[in-house]
Amino acid sequence: MLLTxxxxxxxxxxxxRRAGRELTSAATGRAFAADAATKxxxxxxxxWSAGRALTNRSGLGFAACGGAAGEVARYLGVATLRxxxxxAMAVDAFLARIEAAIPEHPNLxxxxxxxxxxxxxxxxxxxxxxxxKAICQHMGLTRALTSLSPISIELSALAGLLDANPFNDGYxxxxxxxxxxxxxxxxxxxxxxxxxxxxxxxxxxxxxxxxILAKVLAAAAGGGGGGGGGPESQAEPDxxxxxxxxxxxxxxxxxxxxxxxxxxGTDRYLLLLxxxxxxxxxxxTPQDLIGAFDAMCDIDTTYTRAVRKVLEYAQVxxxxxxxxxxxxxxxxxxxxxxxxxxFVGTWRLTHVxxxxxxxxxKRPADPYTRVVSLVNEHDVIPTLDGRGPTSPAxxxxxxxELAWNDETYDYPLSHAPQSYSDALRSVTAGxxxxxxxxxxxxxxxxxxxxxxxxxxxx
Amino acid sequence: xxxxxxxxxALLAAGRLPGVGMGLLSQxxxxxxxxGLLGLVRSGRPAHMxxxxxxxxxxxxxxxxxxxxxxxVEAEALGTADEVDPAGRRHRLPECAPLPEVPREFMELxxxxxxxxxxxxxxxxxxxxxxxxxxxxxxxxxxxxxDTLLDRLAVGSGTERADRRxxxxxxxxxxxxxxxxxxxxxxxxxxxxxxxxxxxxxxxxLAHLLTAMIVTAETVGPRALALLAADGYADRAxxxxxxxxxxGVWPEVFGxxxxxxxxxxxxxVEVGAGVEVLVxxxxxxxxxxxxxxxxxxxxxxxLSGLCAAPRRCVTRELALAVTTELLVAALANGRPQLLAxxxxxARPPAQLDPRRVRVELLAFGAPPRLSGLEATAAELExxxxxxxDLAADQRWDHADGLRTRGVLLGHARRCAVAAEDVRRxxxxxx
Lengths: 458, 430
Known about the structure:
heterodimer; A: alpha/beta; nine-stranded mixed beta sheet; 19 helices; 9 strands; 14% strand; B: alpha+beta; four-stranded antiparallel beta sheet; two-stranded antiparallel sheet; 14 helices; 12% strand; globular
């Protein structure tokens, strides 16, 4: 019922927004300017009527938008906290979703969380900050983040809609209605600006693995833990071991390419892509926070360009079959590559397997690419695409979203690749491991090449 | 440089300025006026012009353009052809790829496949038009089901502006077609003509056919829909006429530069080897209609931009036939109503962007659809009603539910008030 209410309110909000744009255009557009020159009285009546409709508190509220004049009016309205009816409906839609999450996540029914939600919904940032501080003092930061993770995306959307910044509203609407974001979720930095902050043609070069990585690679290649793996090892692909490799690659600019002579006589390739390093906002590798925001809003990033360089450097032949496994930003990059018709036209991307990645608003260009999304519901990061546990937006039927509720780790540990591989080996998500291994069985064979690469922005 | 040379240079240079290209000052409208003036200055004869963008022989009437090119074809004098955009930039036209003889059973397949393709179309036709056109093209050429990557590669390979990227996409398209040819289903053009994965000619032909079908349906289709909706007719004869008219009135490319490889003579004019003939689409004029006046000129076919073939191209004809059948199938159960843009079929605009055409299918006997603010007001009323209905549900009869019920009723009232305000503004519009 609550989700139905959320959906209907979202639909009504969409129509109210469109009404605002159409009324603004009726009063400020070219047709109006032409009419004002020839029929000034009629134009005045139109402007008066549209103005009343756009400011009626009992109706559309302060609803001017669209076009130069409309956007200026909207910015002024947001800055002075005059809200359109559409925003009020969106806020109530999000609150319905938050309430709908409680039965599955009873920890959300505590007075502390209720205080946080009420403060966000009432646009009281000081109260919200104090409430967050209180819950952190009570539970610790990581436990607090874990507790709030099922509704984190709704809280971010409420903050975006109800603050005085008109530029971060777009992400909130994507969260409500689905679609592709055109700005970052917090400040509303447009995608073009993010791209300007993340320049570089991408660069790649092969490197020798360090001792730890070599050991993990050997285990993943089927040679056991003692380094007996490497080339010529027989391997049945195991998703938990592949995630181990991603963990061993770290977040400082390494990716991994494997070539396997498969049992059916075909050579197939596997790419492993780690996620973001959080130490700095921007570094010389594609695996930084700026790169992550860029990857949210665009499919062409330094990471995707660097990965292309890896495949070109390794002379992976056009038409070869390829699978990509990516964690966090690595999963987003895998999907961004899957969305690029030039990439999938060059290499046959058979599988994309993402681990803790926000990818639900992306769609692969090749309808035969099999997408598998592994999600720990306590991990906040996969919800950054705007689709949380109570979001009505859905993923294509052909995708496999394999989710589990693992309370072993608080965030951010719940996001780490090691926690995902541990869960895949445990009772919690072991059945998902079997499912994925069956899906990628065609990649079984003899590993003939295991090569890490260093990637850089330039 | 003569005045008219300066004029043409300025026209092409204007195409490189941002902002020129919309509305009254659209490039095609300007070009039409320029060509009209040029015709007066040159007494209707082709003009040798020397511009900043090259030297050309420019026919200034449709009849001359057709006659000149026909004579060149007869004399086997033509070399390569480039498309010219409004900024004077040249882009190589794709080479034509020959097709085998079209089997009769394939022509019979088109109608049935078109009916399947439009099954999901209803209401606003133009919203789902591109999807239906691509589904049909995939079905007819390779019976390729839901392989949307095929058409993304095909449309890219036919119209890409960066030649290198076009080659990469074309190679990708060829690979994809070969992949389908390895496990071909029987009821499609490829199977009916015995195409195989190791036949380069077959793959080229299939790629050309797929691209032509999609591009033609996506450009000519909406324009023909707009003409049909403005005229108010939708039977087969009118559909066929609308398609021919859309091709003639709105050629897809701004112009074509055709190189002359060998000298020839036409109507007293000596055209030497190395001359470049510039045919501006505006030369055809607003009354242009493919099929009028005793046959189709080769120039109309080249101005489709699909390939450089100077003669009638079987692929392009098939593409038009498919577009026609798609329109006939889409309009079988209703009549088209034009929502946007406003169009006077007797005075069509110089250019009509197919992406801006909006046409609704009305069931026979149904009243015209509301548009603009009236439609938005009606939608707001529907939301008000839906929210009230949801609020009335007895499952809200508990403490928290009563609060949610109150919220829903509050928003229902806002939608109802907003609907009244919007309708009032709609009535106040001049």
